[in-house]
């Protein structure tokens, strides 16, 4: 299982950090998706740190040991959404999603 | 541009069957892994299944293994999800998604279709 905090709250202009943890993460790449209400998920980050085309510069990915982190610098109200990490099981063949983190912009 | 359009959802009684389809356009369908991901009402994302470009590789989540079958039609650029022995807990929006890479395994998913609602209820 990929563990994410259920919620993160920040004020506009602050940085938000959303973590995703699992023992398997050092062995496989992690991707991050943003989902706004009523919309399908959108790819933000792949291969732990690479931005998808169209991902604003304020989004970045990082990794340290068994934890990967999505950082949103200078958060805007439009960043309010659910964020999911995605990786693989121990075999590297089955896809796993984190439980999701609801980002609230105060 | 790349487009994925799901169809085939609806209301079905427990124990029933449905076949979802995902029509694609705007890319070389044959080369790409395709996946189904679902989202129960108010819940998070759950990967369901994926299939390789050659159809040689297919994987399923434990929750659907033995009940769901993924397939693809490279002529019509469509991926299907045959769902049998449906349960109330299969109720969800089902999304079709493409792996944009040309690797030998599923990497990441981009883009996703708008999704189709499957409701399993008596």
Overall helicity of chain A: under 10%
Individual helix count of chain A: 0
From the structure provided, what is the oligomeric state, counting identical versus distinct chains? Answer: heterodimer
The fraction of residues assigned to DSSP E strands of chain B is: over 45%
Which spans of chain A of ≥5 residues are poorly predicted at pLDDT below 50? none
Principal-axes geometry of chain B comes out as: globular
Q: How many β-strand stretches of chain A?
A: 10
Instruction: Give the SSE order of chain A as H and E letters.
Output: EEEEEEEEEE
Strand order of the largest sheet of chain B: 2-10-9-4-5-6
Mean pLDDT of chain B: 96
Number of strands of chain B: 10
Fold and architecture overview:
The complex is a heterodimer of chains A (106) and B (122). Chain A is globular, with a radius of gyration of 13 Å. In chain A, strands 1, 3, 4, 5, 8, 9 and 10 form a 7-stranded mixed β-sheet that branches. In chain A, strands 2-7-6 form a 3-stranded antiparallel β-sheet, with no helix packed on it. Chain A has strands at 7-10, 16-21, 31-35, 42-46, 50-51, 59-64, 67-72, 81-88, 95-97, 101-105. By secondary structure, chain A is an all-beta fold. The N and C termini of chain A lie far apart (29 Å). Chain B is mainly β and 122 residues long. In chain B, the strands form 2 sheets. In chain B, strands 2-10-9-4-5-6 form a 6-stranded mixed β-sheet, with no helix packed on it. Chain B has a 4-stranded antiparallel β-sheet with strand order 1-3-8-7, with no helix packed on it. Chain B is globular, with a radius of gyration of 14 Å. The N and C termini of chain B lie far apart (40 Å). Classes of the chains: A mainly beta (106), B mainly beta (122). Chain A binds chain B through residues 29, 31, 33, 35, 40-43, 46-47, 52, 82, 84, 86, 92-100, and chain B through 35, 37, 44-47, 50, 59, 61, 95, 105-115.
């Amino acid at each position: 299982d990929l563990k994410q905090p259920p919620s993160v709250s920040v004020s506009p202009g602050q940085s938000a950090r959303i973590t995703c943890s699992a023992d398997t993460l050092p062995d496989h790449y992690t991707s991050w998706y943003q989902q706004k209400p009523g919309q399908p998920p959108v790819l933000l980050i792949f291969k732990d740190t690479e931005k998808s085309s169209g991902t604003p510069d304020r989004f970045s990915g990082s990794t340290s040991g068994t934890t990967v982190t999505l950082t949103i610098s200078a958060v805007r109200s439009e960043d309010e959404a659910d964020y999911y990490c995605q990786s693989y099981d121990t075999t590297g063949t089955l896809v796993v999603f984190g439980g999701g983190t609801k980002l609230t912009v105060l | 541009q790349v487009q994925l359009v799901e169809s085939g959802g609806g209301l079905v009684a427990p124990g029933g069957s449905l076949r979802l389809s995902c029509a694609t356009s705007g890319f070389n369908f044959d080369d790409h892994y395709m996946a189904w991901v679902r989202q129960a009402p108010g819940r998070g994302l759950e990967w369901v299944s994926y299939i390789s470009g050659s159809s040689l590789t297919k994987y399923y989540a434990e929750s659907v293994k033995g009940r769901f079958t993924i397939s693809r039609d490279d002529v019509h650029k469509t991926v299907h999800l045959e769902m049998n022995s449906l349960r109330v807990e299969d109720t969800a929006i089902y999304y079709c998604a493409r792996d944009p890479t040309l690797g030998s395994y599923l990497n990441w998913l981009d883009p996703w279709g708008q999704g189709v609602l499957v409701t399993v209820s008596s």
